[in-house]
Amino acid sequence: MGNLKKVLVSLVVFVLIVGGVSMLQAMGEKSSQKAEVKAKSERLKPKLQAPSLKSQANSGTPTVQQLLDKVEENYHKIKDLKADYNVKTWDSEFAKFLGIIGDLITQDEKFFFKSPDKLKWIPPYKPKTIVIKSNVEYSRVGTGMLFTVTKDTPVKPSKLPWYTLLDPDRFDFYWRLDEIVTKFDSRVIAHPETDVWVIEAVPKGSNPEDEYNYPVSNGKLEVFVDYNKGVITKIDDFSDFTGFHSDVPPGLRLTCRRESQNFTLISNAWISTKLTLTKFPVPMFAPDETKEEYTLSNIQINTGIPDSEFEF
């Protein structure tokens, strides 16, 4: 009986051992299968490569055309505009010529705009009204040392150089944006702050269709665009006067800055209500810094200004 008991116990132990080994083998096989499936899955996964520095730099950067399209989208909301217009000029030499004490010259005017290319300024002395249509200026040209003008002085047209289209008193909804592409070699060079991108625009060698080429062929513009608002906030003008005079150091120098400020959302369009123009000193050419400031107030948009408003 005792021997039989020992045999039975041995059989039970043997069965347990065999079962445990089989279980371990099964677990091992299952684990091995899982590992193989995982390895196969890993092999089939697409390899994610780290982006190059070039692709990182270009990621999310709008093109020149995209930036200009945003500006165009904003100013095309403005069919016409009229406003009170104040201009201030800080120029001691000109003030002295006019007999003004100090350096500030100021004047209140009325301003009108009609899309796409009509502008009008009415100063306090109405015979000196200026109208611009398709970049041709119409005004009464005075005679004599003081260029005296009366209501009987004939109105004469004067074709303006194409680059005056970038003058700040035209306001950003009038700028001919295509000029930045057709007359300049342009590229996006910087992203100095949220939503603001900088376009470098180097004038092309020749613009034969124009009466004048760009004033300084070896200069450049840097155009700052707020992509969110669709507005040009600043234009820096760089020129190289190398060779003009020995006292002028070589290389590009910032000579002029046009800056748009105080943007206001009116009738779903962003309007700059204050613009400044600063001309920086250039040895032998412009020894003093001068500044102009243009301010719009009482702005009315899309009131249906007739074409007759731009006729004398």
What tags apply to this protein structure?
outer membrane lipoprotein receptor (LolB), chain A; 312 residues; 23% helix; alpha+beta
Strand proportion: 35-45%
Oligomeric status of the shown chains? single chain
Strand arrangement, largest sheet? Answer: 6-5-4-3-2-1-13-12-11-10-9-8-7
Based on Cα principal axes, name the global outline.
globular
Structural class, from secondary structure content?
alpha+beta
Find the CATH topology.
outer membrane lipoprotein receptor (LolB), chain A
The largest sheet, given as strand count, sense and whether it forms a barrel, is: 13 strands, antiparallel
Runs with pLDDT <50, length 5+? 1-58
Q: Report the end-to-end length measured between terminal Cα atoms.
A: 135 Å
Mean pLDDT comes to 76
The figure for the number of domains is 1
